[in-house]
Amino acid sequence: MLQSLVSDLRNKMMGVSLYGVVTDIHRDESSSNVVFSLRLQDISGAIWARLHFSKFWSLKRLSHGHMVFISGLTCIMKEKRLEVLWHENNTGASLVNLSIMPTIMNSSCLHRQTLLSDIFTKSCSTYICEVRIDQVDLCYIDTRYSHLHCGQFIIKKHDGLFECSFCHDSSISHLEVANSFYLRITLTDERAKVGAWCTGQTAMELLQISPDEFNNLSEDEQLMYSSSLENLAFKVALVNSRSKAHGSHDHRSTSLEEDTIQWEITCALKRD
């Protein structure tokens, strides 16, 4: 398996592996198969990868700014532009979202811990910070349905049917749907404050409650719940979710509200 930078890639190379940041991703709706186009950027450049899945998107949640490792790539020239192909069932094919792995929090070989004040000046894909929850009066907690296959929110269409906002699956059964949080929150350390958002398991870790448990609270209890979070300490992983998309698509797949907030919390661990 060949570990490469984008700038090393040449036509007809096979078995290639890349690390990079996702700067754009969308489903290829012109294909009858399950194919996604992903733009991957590393320190040397960027390239489009076409991801071919056997049945459906099976990588759970992946979004702008996430750091991934992908192996089993094949390089081809298409319309005088180099791109890479990935087939889920090929031998040696894997795609790992490093930004959502809990092990990234304590792995100094992957990322060093930093202060919130440094995330605007340092050039990293994922920042690990020790923080506390602040300004709970500005905290926003919402529960929504998400698609189990890809972890993204579901849109209710005019005809009453549901469609995944990311993979555009419009035949979603109740077995493929789960309650999930959408959370906006303020993080602080000794030098700075940062507004951030998150969903899924990360939001559950920060809120210390499940979406179903939260929905079972009375309306007054839900409104007061954020006050219980004041000054709770966490180690978090942050990524820049406003990575500039390139190409003709810009699918902000989880929520329009995220466009106003730059930082996504991809992992969180509660501290004593």
UniProtKB/TrEMBL annotation:
<protein>
    <recommendedName>
        <fullName>Cell division control protein 24 OB domain-containing protein</fullName>
    </recommendedName>
</protein>
<feature type="domain" description="Cell division control protein 24 OB">
    <location>
        <begin position="8"/>
        <end position="229"/>
    </location>
</feature>
<dbReference type="InterPro" id="IPR035203">
    <property type="entry name" value="Cdc24_OB3"/>
</dbReference>
<dbReference type="InterPro" id="IPR012340">
    <property type="entry name" value="NA-bd_OB-fold"/>
</dbReference>
<dbReference type="Pfam" id="PF17244">
    <property type="entry name" value="CDC24_OB3"/>
</dbReference>
